[in-house]
Amino acid sequence: MTDCLFCKIVSGDVPATIVRESAGTVAFRDINPQAPTHVLVIPRDHHPTAAELAAADAGLLAEVVREAHQVAVDEGIAEAGYRVVINTGAQAGQTVFHVHAHVLGGRGLNWPPG
Ligand code: AMP
Ligand code: ZN
């Protein structure tokens, strides 16, 4: 998708601080971090939401989740605890419609979220 911000990060047309890559995914630091660790994991292929990715390529969704947990290990937050969030749809706060998993940690996280 030519006008998708996260597709441009995948292609290198928009810069990002990439922390991890796999065959199907790219992980990079969120530009407006909400926790000491705040990384986004995205599929290289454009799918707007988690629901659409699950329907189109469940294996790729599994790869996104696997990579999210590997980011937590790399960041040293896996043992203390961390959160993986996929906002789906406008009411949930999704603003970029290229599916992404937020990996958040490095501080206590409230539950339920606001
Ligand atoms: P969401 O609200 O779940 O759609 O999350 C979108 C996230 O993308 C937000 O946390 C933004 O801070 C983040 N974001 C937006 N633009 C960029 C960018 N150029 N590089 C890194 N993260 C970004
Ligand atoms: Zn995209």
Question: Would you write up a description of this structure?
Answer:
- This protein has 114 residues and is of the alpha+beta class.
- It has a single domain, classed as HIT-like (HIT family, subunit A).
- The chain is 28% helix and 22% strand.
- It is built from three helices and five strands.
- The longest helix is centred in the middle third of the chain and has 18 residues.
- The structure holds adenosine monophosphate (AMP) and zinc ion.
- The site of adenosine monophosphate has 12 residues, from loops.
- Adenosine monophosphate binds next to loops.
- This is Histidine triad nucleotide-binding protein.
- Pfam families: HIT.
- One of its GO terms (molecular function) is catalytic activity.
